[in-house]
Amino acid sequence: MNIIVCLKQVPDTETQIKVASDSKSIVTDDVKWVMNPYDEFGVEEALRLKEKFGGEVTVVGLGPKRVTESIRTALAMGADKGILISDDALEGSDSLAVAKALAAAIKELEYDLIFTGQRGVDDDLGIVGAACAELLGIPQMSIIVKVEVAEDGKTVKVTRPVEGENLVIESSLPALITTQKGLNEPRYASLPGIMKAKKKPLEEKTLSDLGLDAAGFGEGGRKMKIVELTPPPARAAGKIVEGETPQEKAAELAKLLHDEAKVI
Amino acid sequence: MDFSFTDEQMMFKDQVIRFATKEIVPRSREHDLMGEFDFQSFRKLGEFGILGLHFPEDLGGSDADVVTTTLAGEALGEAGVDGGLNLAYGAHTFLCADTIFAHGTDAQREKYVPKLCSGELIGCMGLTEPGAGSDVASMTTHAQKREDGYVLNGNKMFITNGPIADVAVVYAKTDKEQKHAGISAFIVEKDTPGFSAGKNLNKMGVRSSHTSELIFDDCKIPKENLIGREGAGFLMAMQTVEWDRSALMAPFVGGMTYVLKRCIGYAKERHQFGRPIYQYQAIKHKLADIKIFIEASRALVYRIAWSKDQGRLLNHLEAAVAKLFIGDWSLGPANDAVTLHGGYGYCHEYDVERAFRDGRLAPIGGGTSEIAKQIITKLI
């Protein structure tokens, strides 16, 4: 069973995010970059399936050179091969363009299953998985917490939580699954794993390597534009309700909730 | 001179910190408070490969060099793992398993090292005695040679992992007439008749590690349990002590980085007289002092690790300097960290008082500061 895991590099969730002076991007100087945590579930699930069915796990990442580090981490966890799609023309691409590049790279590979995170923890858009499946013309099952591949390796049964209930979906393969928290506990990369990863193949591809026209990518190719990024508003100081008696205080509180907070 | 770590070493350090932060640290506070050994975390250290890093892969290790091994220890401290578990790991891996690996026969290695690497067995080392601390050669534990083996009699004291160990490396005199040259090392298994451990000592710090007396009362062991040759024990102990003074110290150094992180966080949050206390010079100086200690001790510890990787087996002077510096000079910064936190610093949940208590062992265990100074003056 050959499995592909799409990987995005995102700022560590503990990073203090600052909006840059252009109001459209973030300051990346002090950012620690890590593998998108949802993609980690994908890597782990792929490795477990590989351990059961054999085959190969290929990690496909997209972005600047630093993404290599996260691909190496996936290789250290046990994945077999890595591909990094890296091209200056990709800078500023939107989710659809990213999906196009990923799909173009994946098309050249043999695969039974593709995992992507259900969303990136940076932009929180959740588009790439679905768009990628559409471009490849394969079924997509999103926000999955359980994956069971049939013994013959031809179909997959997945579980998706829906409002406290579980929706169970069965699909033929190949298919694309987007992963949700709860799917598994990703393993840590051991030292021997890290040393072995050094020697595993990691290929770099540009847009032209994939037969794609740079014009459809980057800022110019965006279908969706970022108008402005703003940090959450600073929390205003609390207010102590004044009044001599409980009745007075209650009246004052009601007045504030109505006039100032406008919630009643 | 190369002060940089490789990409692989940095990735591994990152993984150790992630692992420890998620799997171990949430349990550290409680185990320290209760004075209980955390068997679950110890086994997880084994599963993740930490317990056997520097041993060969065919014995269950990871073939790591000494620098990487030291880095892993530092990472455990940096993540906030308590000194007790770190000490238990150090005593197990460097004082017990490493002695068997470095000086044992193939049969001894194959029998014990893989299970010590995985954490299936817990190891300890018995050198110190109630009446023989700094003066190692005055030990009275005696191993009398018989036709089929040895009979051990005597007591060992302050033995880390003593009450929970499955395997003990024990030093005893095979020749009472001789001083250093009369000491030999033996492997003693837990259930050997005549061998018992005392109850866990109630300690000031490193509380989640269990410490006790080891008692030998006509304890018969087979002759194949001798490590190396008779009379070679003292040299083994000295080689062990060097680990004691480098890799085993790394978690202390990492622990101070954890303390510094806590201090910076607190100093930025805590407001007095209208501004965060971070802005006051008195606080800034304390933070700087902690950082200076960390940088200096890192340099000392990694220098020994690097030397070992270069094939220099004995680094007594460097080890004594590192041990003394980290032991004596960490007390000031640890005290500053408590001071900086005010009343909260005196409370358990802020972790700095734990670092203060744990750190107090450093000038005592594995050779006192006074002995370190003796060694230094002898070698200059």
Give a description of the structure.
The complex is a heterodimer of chains A (264) and B (380). The longest helix of chain A is centred in the first third of the chain and has 17 residues, at 37-53. Chain A has a 7-stranded parallel sheet with strand order 7-11-6-1-4-5-12, with helices on both faces. Chain A is built from 6 helices and 12 strands. The model of chain A has no long low-confidence stretch (mean pLDDT 94). Chain A has 2 domains: 3-221, HUPs (Rossmann fold); 233-264, no CATH class. Chain A has helices at residues 37-53, 67-77, 95-107, 128-136, 191-197, 246-259; strands at residues 3-7, 9-11, 33-35, 57-62, 81-85, 113-117, 140-144, 146-149, 155-162, 165-172, 175-179, 202-205. The radius of gyration of chain A is 23 Å and the shape is globular. The N and C termini of chain A lie far apart (58 Å). By secondary structure, chain A is of the alpha/beta class. Helices cover 51% and strands 15% of the residues of chain B. Chain B has a 4-stranded mixed sheet with strand order 1-4-5-8. A 4-stranded antiparallel sheet of chain B has the order 2-3-7-6, with helices on one face. Chain B has helices at 7-23, 25-34, 39-48, 66-79, 83-103, 106-118, 233-244, 250-269, 281-309, 316-329, 331-340, 342-345, 352-359, 369-379, and strands at residues 123-126, 142-146, 149-160, 167-173, 183-189, 195-197, 211-222, 226-227, 271-272, 275-276. In chain B, helix 5 (83-103) packs antiparallel against helix 6. In chain B, strand 9 and strand 10 form a beta hairpin. By secondary structure, chain B is of the alpha+beta class. The mean pLDDT of chain B is 94. The longest helix of chain B has 29 residues, at 281-309. Chain B folds into 3 domains: 7-122, Orthogonal Bundle (Butyryl-Coa Dehydrogenase, subunit A, domain 1), CATH 1.10.540; 124-236, Beta Barrel (Butyryl-CoA Dehydrogenase, subunit A, domain 2), CATH 2.40.110; 245-379, Butyryl-CoA Dehydrogenase, subunit A, domain 3, CATH 1.20.140.10. Chain B is built from 14 helices and 10 strands.
